[in-house]
Design goal:
Two copies of one chain form a homodimer. Chain A is α/β, with parallel strands linked by helices and 393 residues long. Chain A folds into two domains: 138 residues, Aspartate Aminotransferase, domain 1 (Alpha-Beta Complex); 229 residues, Type I PLP-dependent aspartate aminotransferase-like (Major domain) (Aspartate Aminotransferase, domain 2, 3-Layer(aba) Sandwich), CATH 3.40.640.10. Helix content of chain A is 39%, strand content 16%. In chain A, the strands form five sheets. Chain A has a seven-stranded mixed beta sheet with strand order 4-12-11-10-9-5-6, with helices on both faces. The first copy, chain A, has a three-stranded antiparallel beta sheet with strand order 13-16-15, with helices on one face. In chain A, helix 5 links the parallel strand 5 and strand 6. In chain A, helix 2 runs antiparallel to helix 10, helix 3 runs parallel beside helix 10 and helix 11 packs parallel to helix 13. The longest helix of chain A has 25 residues. Chain A is globular, with a radius of gyration of 21 Å. The interface between A and B is large, with 60 and 60 residues.
Chain lengths: 393, 393
Amino acid sequence: MDKFSLELDETFLRRRRNNKWHLHPPDVLPAFVAEMDLAVAPCIQAAVERIVREQDYGYPKRSDERADREVANAFVRHMKRRFGWETVPELALPVADLVQGTYASLLAFSDPGDGVILQVPNYPPFREAIVSTERRLLSLHMRDTGARYAFDMAELKRLVDPGTRIFILCNPQNPTGRVFSRDELLAIGRFAVEHDLIIVSDEIHSDLVYTPRQHIPIASLGPEIAARSVTLNSATKSYNIPGLRCGVVHFGTEELAARYHKRIPLRLTGQCSVAGIDATVAAWDDGQPWLDAVMEHLRRARDRAVNTFSAELPAIKLYAPEATYLLWLDCSDLGLSLSAFEFFLGNARVGLSEGERFEPALTQFVRLNFATSFPILEQILERMVTAVRRNQR
Amino acid sequence: MDKFSLELDETFLRRRRNNKWHLHPPDVLPAFVAEMDLAVAPCIQAAVERIVREQDYGYPKRSDERADREVANAFVRHMKRRFGWETVPELALPVADLVQGTYASLLAFSDPGDGVILQVPNYPPFREAIVSTERRLLSLHMRDTGARYAFDMAELKRLVDPGTRIFILCNPQNPTGRVFSRDELLAIGRFAVEHDLIIVSDEIHSDLVYTPRQHIPIASLGPEIAARSVTLNSATKSYNIPGLRCGVVHFGTEELAARYHKRIPLRLTGQCSVAGIDATVAAWDDGQPWLDAVMEHLRRARDRAVNTFSAELPAIKLYAPEATYLLWLDCSDLGLSLSAFEFFLGNARVGLSEGERFEPALTQFVRLNFATSFPILEQILERMVTAVRRNQR
């Protein structure tokens, strides 16, 4: 199965000059920031090696166009093949970084004081973007229904007001790992139409969905919803190349793109590096076999983590994520005197993501990244189990 | 002298998937876009090779900080060592692309309808930025004094009006190759203080100055001028890595940075790729010996080109550039029936930069990039000389 030799040992991993392996002291095992401890796809490695071999660091050109247009072309091919979504490259704007796409959309489609709906908990930069641009954060809670995390349309209806302009959707959802169903997405889409909202849909985890779940791009639900949807996507998360900085902002219609560009000039958001461009095109065009192997690895890692917690630490509430390599752990019933993050960092020497960064009240939650090799994952789980047991004596 | 083996042959160059060698048909020798046909600095190549070897494509960290802060640190070290300019990394904002810095500064420090002074001819994106953001372009002409190109302070005084907000300075100047003297810069600085203008100073060619000329960062001229100066710089031009996308926007004071960030959130302009970061830091910290060799090569190439035109085509007016590897050719006296660009493309099969892109009226000007190996440069010069002579018969 491991025909791609995905697993890397700790010595190799610690040589990488990344935040993941160097934020904490060396006795801490990191399981926070959303990147994978796995070997990169051969097609990506070959693309970057070619650039380096030919010292090809000039202004790049691909397929007779400015090179970043090839990112838009590859995005369109990938959306069609993976999700049956038909769109055109003219609607896709390559950017270095999807957080840019969020800030740019907020500035383009709302004004200070306007309301922005965000499903919480959520990826921290969304909250930061809303607050720092002086929009009003309207929090739609992902609630534990006893079967999964879900939002409630009745709550959404109570939340919206006439000054609300934007719904930030994160699908698949980070950190809960939910993949929204067609019904859930249609409900959001119709609500957006009804209340004249722009949907900013971060779909960066869309390639990391476990069968039988299926990702549906919200802009693919029909022209009325597409006309108000800005879709953010990138190969950086699923192909593990966030440092190469490349992504796409997709507008559902030309009118929407024109409205955006009225406030955000094309060149304000910058251009992708040649490495980001070629790696992204390689990923989307040729990376599927590698990703299939990765998904198999991640499914095993997910199940291993979920089964361990269920068996050994049943007081921690969790649901197996439907997508992503992130596990959202509700530690409220552990009766910790510290935040869950501090508890596991101090007592297990495991570096998780702080729940409170995803939603300030959630200090008893942590997010665990299980995208690593099995020997490391086993150590992480064992350390966490031991720390909780020792604490309960 | 060529201890760095700078020269590359045409076969190697044509393998690069860049715009320079693939915009025109294969029988055309390119001498347009500002990148060099030279081998990259060994310190840069080593930095990029390390990333690739360790597949270090995650979220990078350097010197215990988010990696792009190391670009700011290296910028400060480089400015001190090269120009004796003392500043602090907190005032330097890494960006992917200096055109971003121009757009962002226009949006931050002016409103639609406001006047923006630009020395013309100039790098085309400046004009595009002013026009597309609906500012008023106020053109300060670089005039041929018979000894060099220069602007006239009396003309500047007549040009400015109460709605003028910004002076875009390009120093060293592209395409004329002028390096402005302390007196010229002080005159601009004082004028900006007097008329309450922000100076946006593109200094991307500052490392490409031929002795005895010296580059002076305008923000180094004193606190009053610094307080209104936004300086744009990057290693991409002098170290020939534009495709890696990394640069710096520097604010003369914290107040100026705060005013900028009130309109342009930090994360709107995105983040540099790990390759851009490490290559830039390597260039600024360790690249000087390589750059010294490059400058020697460029001086010989410049002199060869200038001497050839002076001897063989005296009707073309030109001045040896004081900086840059770009030669600004005034072909008005050739009596061409086409634009100079079209003439040389069609008749010499040499791809130059169109003068009219730098200033619409200048169809009889072209810009020649002489940063190539001598065998290629000789061919370019010979083809141009032959084409003009044949045309004059």
